[in-house]
Design goal:
Elements (H helix, E strand, L loop, with lengths): L1 H11 L5 E2 L2 H4 L20 H17 L10 H7 L4 E8 L6 H20 L2 E2 L2 E2 L10 E8 L13 E3 L37 E6 L5 E4 L2 E5 H6 L7 H10 L28 H14 L6
Parallel strand pairs: 1-8, 2-5, 2-7, 5-6, 7-9
Antiparallel strand pairs: 3-4, 8-9
Helix pairs in contact: 3-8, 5-7
Bound molecules: zinc ion.
Zinc ion binds next to helix 7.
Length: 289
C-alpha cells in the first residue's frame, strides 16, 4: 500500500487538487460489510436528502473497500479518543522562526477545527459523535537542514530524514500511516509522540493533495493564507482525509457549489457539512456507536 501510494503521488502530484481517497489508497478487494441501518438521528434539511443519497450511492459504487478501509481521519480521532497529532513536513529552504511555527500551529488548529465543528450542534455531537472539541497537536517537524528551523527549544521533535523522493519526512516509526495497528513501540517518544497526519508544505507546489496520510499544499500558499478565515485548499484536502470524494465530473441534484467540488466554493458549505456527517453515519457502527 505504501508503494502504491508513493507511485500514485509521483504520477499525480502535478495535477491540482488530486484526489487520494479510500478506494485508491487501499486497493485490496474485501467484501463490503452490511450497510448500517439509517439512524434516527439523521435529520438533514429536506432539500439535501436527495443529493446526499446520490453522493453516498456514488461513493459506494466507486470504492469497493469503502467499509473495509480503516485509516480515515475518523479512525485517527477515535483511536486517540478525541484528539489529532500532526507532523509538519517543511519541504522548503525558507527559514521558519518560532513565531511562524506557532502561527502555522494556530492556523492548523483553527482550520481543522472547522471540520470538527461541523459535527457539533448546540454543544452536542451530531449522531453520536463523541467529541465536541478535538485538540490538534503538532508533535514534530521534518526538514532537510536543521538550520532552516530557527528555534532552539524542544517543543517538537525534529526529523531530518528524507523519503524515497528526497522530501523531508517525519519518522515512519511514529506515523499512523505506517503503523495502522497503533503500535508505536519503535517511535522514540512512544505513542504520545506519534503522528496521525502530515501537513506537507512544499515550495512551489500548486493545488493540493489529501488522503489518509495527511494533506499537501504549497508552502507559500499555506504561510500566505495564515490570516485567512478559510485556507480552502487545505480544508478541501482534509475532506479527503475523512473520506470525502471529488466532484470533477458530476454534481449532485441542486448542488452547484461546495468545497469538495474544487473551485466552486472557498469554505465548508452546508452541503459539505452534511456529506461529512453522512460519512460518519455510515462509519460509526465500526466503533460500536
Ligand atoms: Zn480533491
Amino acid at each position: 500500500m505504501r508503494k502504491h501510494l508513493a507511485r500514485l503521488l509521483t504520477v499525480l502530484s502535478v495535477f491540482a487538487a488530486l484526489v487520494m481517497t479510500a478506494g485508491t489508497m487501499s486497493p485490496r478487494a474485501e467484501a463490503a460489510e452490511p450497510r448500517p441501518q439509517a439512524a434516527a438521528a439523521w435529520n438533514p434539511p429536506a432539500n439535501l436528502v436527495q443529493p446526499l443519497d446520490e453522493v453516498w450511492r456514488h461513493v459506494e459504487s466507486t470504492y469497493p473497500n469503502l467499509y473495509g478501509f480503516r485509516n480515515y481521519g475518523w479512525d485517527h480521532v477515535m483511536a486517540n479518543r478525541g484528539s489529532i497529532n500532526y507532523c509538519v513536513r517543511w519541504e522548503s529552504d525558507a527559514p521558519v522562526s518560532a513565531a511562524l511555527r506557532d502561527r502555522i500551529h494556530a492556523a492548523l488548529k483553527k482550520q481543522f477545527g472547522k471540520w470538527m465543528s461541523a459535527m457539533v450542534d448546540n454543544g452536542t455531537g451530531h449522531n453520536a459523535w463523541p467529541y465536541t472539541n478535538v485538540p490538534v497537536n503538532i508533535v514534530g517537524w521534518a526538514v532537510k537542514n536543521r538550520s532552516t528551523l530557527q528555534w532552539t527549544d524542544n517543543s517538537v521533535d525534529i526529523y531530518t530524514g528524507l523519503d524515497s523522493g528526497g522530501a523531508p519526512q517525519c519518522l515512519p516509526d511514529c506515523g499512523r500511516f505506517f503503523h495502522q495497528d497503533g503500535n508505536y513501540s519503535r517511535c522514540p517518544g512512544g505513542a504520545a509522540r506519534h503522528y496521525d497526519q502530515s501537513l506537507w508544505l512544499t515550495k512551489g507546489f500548486q493545488g493540493g493533495a489529501g488522503g489518509d496520510w495527511g494533506q499537501r499544499v504549497g508552502s507559500e500558499y499555506f504561510t500566505g493564507a495564515l490570516n485567512q478565515e478559510n485556507i480552502h485548499i487545505y480544508l478541501h484536502e482534509v475532506g479527503h482525509t475523512f473520506g470525502l470524494d471529488d466532484f470533477y465530473d458530476w454534481s449532485p441534484t441542486g448542488q452547484c457549489c461546495f468545497l469538495m467540488k474544487a473551485g466552486s466554493a472557498a469554505q465548508i458549505t452546508d452541503f459539505d457539512k452534511w456529506m461529512f456527517r453522512d460519512f460518519w453515519r455510515h462509519m460509526k457502527s465500526r466503533y460500536g456507536l
